[in-house]
Amino acid sequence: MRKPGAQLIALTALTAILTTTAPAPAAARQTDIPKLTDERGRVLTLRGWNVEDKNHRGASALSDITERHFRDLAARGFNTARLLVFWDDLEPRRGHYSERYLAKIERVLDWAHTHRVRVVIDAHQDVFGPAFGSHRGIPEWATRTDGLPYRPHPDDWFAEYFEPAVQAAFEHLYEDADLRRAQARMWRVLAGRLAHHPAVLGYDLINEPMGRLRPGEDLPSAARRIEAEQITPMYNRIAAAIRQVDRRHWLFVEPTPIVGEGVPTGLGRVADPKIVYAPHFYNAAMEAGRDYDPAAQWIENYEAAVTRYPREQRVPVVVGEWGPLNNTLPNMGRFYDDALASLARYTSGWAGYTWCYGGGYCALDAEGRFRTNKERTARPYAPTVAGTVTTESYEPVAPVYRLTYLPHRPGTTELSLPPAPRGWHIAVTGPADTRTRDIPPGERGTVRVHGVPRGGAPVFVVVTAGREAE
């Protein structure tokens, strides 16, 4: 999401208010938020990026995405992709689903599986869909505007969410019985087709949902009402539809984008045992081109607000999008380090925006090299832990990664180590061992630690830079 312009004054003013009122969270890992787990009960950590093609549709849909995306993701130690798919491509005419589009999605998933990248299927929308210019998402046949006006904002597309016609379209999607059924049917088709693909981790039910503001209603109040009264029932409908064809995969639910300004969500309970809270992590001022200001405490206030829902509902958190447009400003190195430290405290992972080759939000330049400061996202972590994590930390200056966990049963914990100039040295103590002690310079490392329970004794893992760092 990119949101400079018309709404920036209101949003940044809201940020200023919240900065003075919201308490900063503790620096320790927030253990009262559940972690994502796999079918064997191992704790999962997702680190990855969004993969998208917003430029092509119809016969050319997804043509910007190649196997290179997943090969390069894996080569830098990432294990997750959030794949953008569009309802308008899947069902261009009501009741007619594109077999060609489904086959293209499966081809992308095949590439991901080849390179051991797990995929979250994201039903993406920007400004509702193609009824409003070049945007993607909900098909034109499912767009109802009540004849209300719509004016494009070429320099500030997020402002288009506040156009009367767009707000009416969201209202109809939430309230019209036939559109509710159509959305549920679309998800049954999509999930039914992909349920058995080994690359699929879960489904993000809709990207950055919005709604209609009532007269005199401020933005935070509107967001909480829409989330509670319209988005929560929508998620329950979609969840019920997906479970008719797929009972295995995780369901990712998002609040409105207003959560980015430190506003706790109004979402209610989604009645499914495998729900993941998937907020986005954007700041309006930074999206408008301003530098990161540590003194403003935006990250601290965001963390305090965004952790309320997963605590109350007892669900894990995965941030579905994050990363500033201009990552070369003086404080952006500090931003990445602060943001990654915060995300490690309470999430089960994240997907940066976006894995592409070029300028703008792209993680890589045209030659496939990390763009300024984005290399900071490639750091050691544990994609799977066979036990309960008690401490986990990374010190980027040293660098040193530490993991402590309590094994509950014999099992394998996996470490992912990105390519590093000096390579890595791995030390394991406690009731566990590994065959891999060193990763050569410039190589990506996958390290498996085999642990067994022994009287409640913890396993200690320390990863340092090269042998001389022992």
Structure in words:
The chain has 470 residues and is of the alpha/beta class. The chain is built from eleven helices and 19 strands. Helix 5 (164-175) crosses helix 6 and helix 6 (177-194) crosses helix 7. The longest helix is centred in the middle third of the chain and has 25 residues, at 219-243. The chain is globular, with a radius of gyration of 22 Å. The two termini are 43 Å apart.
SSE layout and pairing:
Blueprint: H1 8-21, E1 43-44, E2 46-51, H2 67-75, E3 80-85, H3 87-90, H4 99-114, E4 118-123, H5 164-175, H6 177-194, E5 200-204, H7 219-243, E6 250-253, E7 275-277, E8 280-281, H8 284-287, H9 298-306, H10 308-313, E9 321-322, H11 332-346, E10 349-352, E11 381-385, E12 388-395, E13 400-406, E14 411-417, E15 424-429, E16 432-433, E17 438-439, E18 445-451, E19 459-464
Parallel strand pairs: 2-3, 2-10, 3-4, 4-5, 5-6, 6-7, 8-9
Antiparallel strand pairs: 1-11, 11-14, 12-13, 13-19, 14-18, 15-17, 15-19, 16-18
The radius of gyration over CA amounts to: 22 Å
Give unreliable regions as ranges: 3-10, 12-27
* Percentage beta strand: 15-25%
- How many beta-strand elements? 19
Q: Return the average pLDDT rounded to an integer.
A: 93
Please provide the ordered H/E string of secondary-structure elements: HEEHEHHEHHEHEEEHHHEHEEEEEEEEEE
Structural class: alpha/beta
Largest sheet descriptor: 7 strands, parallel
The N- to C-terminal Cα distance equals 43 Å
Please tell me what the overall shape is: globular
- Strand line-up in the sheet with most strands: 7-6-5-4-3-2-10
Number of helices: 11
Helical residue percent?
25-40%
